[in-house]
Specification:
Structural class: alpha+beta
Strand order of the largest sheet: 2-1-3-4-5-8
Distance between the termini: 124 Å
Order of helices and strands: HHEEHHEEEEEEHH
Strand content: 15-25%
Number of helices: 6
Shape: elongated
Helix content: 25-40%
Length: about 190
């Protein structure tokens, strides 16, 4: 009996965050190419759909890692492709963005999101690897990136706009050159 009381006393001293840190119980995915949201459920640290997604997207590293972080220091360069929003449900809702069509796939969690009331997420970029794309495609994402909509605005959109501007400038210059040649009066000898 004394042993049972001792174990109960120890259990009462364990902070509530420890018991709740099992991870997400649900993950909702939205983004381009999806007719409706994809919902994955299950306790996050167990081999469930939500747990596998959390692991593949670096959720635990971005949310809980104290001290030195294995996350990338900055956004990866280049076109990351369409962005998908993953909303994890713990007691709080935590957002993470996945770029499954990037080479290699990456995920980003914004910092300072409320986590269990008293804590906040660390946040950062996670080099996810091909398993993230495989998992998301098996959950319902298109096998290849949907065209146009949802592209990363700092990547392909800016490059496409720059190309369009350059083509327009060349067209104006060519038209001006042709018009000048036609407008010259004929020289008489």
């Amino acid at each position: 009996m004394k042993r049972l009381l001792f174990l109960l006393a120890i259990a009462a001293l364990v902070p509530p965050g420890t018991a709740l840190s099992k991870g997400p119980v649900e993950a909702t995915i939205t983004g381009p190419g999806l007719d409706k949201a994809i919902v994955l459920s299950g306790v996050g640290e167990e081999p469930t759909p939500a747990g596998s997604l959390a692991e593949s997207a670096g959720f635990f590293l971005a949310a809980f890692t104290p001290g030195e972080s294995p996350l990338l220091q900055a956004r990866p360069r280049g076109d990351l492709g369409p962005r998908y929003t993953i909303t994890y449900k713990l007691p709080d809702e935590i957002k993470q963005y996945a770029y499954p069509y990037a080479t290699p796939p990456v995920a980003y969690m914004p910092p300072d999101q409320g986590l269990f009331g008293a804590d906040v997420t660390r946040g950062g970029w996670f080099l996810a690897g091909p398993q993230l794309k495989t998992l998301l495609v098996s959950a319902g994402l298109p096998k290849s990136a949907p065209g146009g909509s949802g592209s990363d605005p700092s990547g392909s959109f800016s490059l496409g706009l720059l190309r369009l501007f350059g083509a327009g400038l060349l067209l104006v210059m060519a038209t001006t050159l042709v018009m000048r040649r036609r407008a010259r009066p004929a020289t008489t000898a």
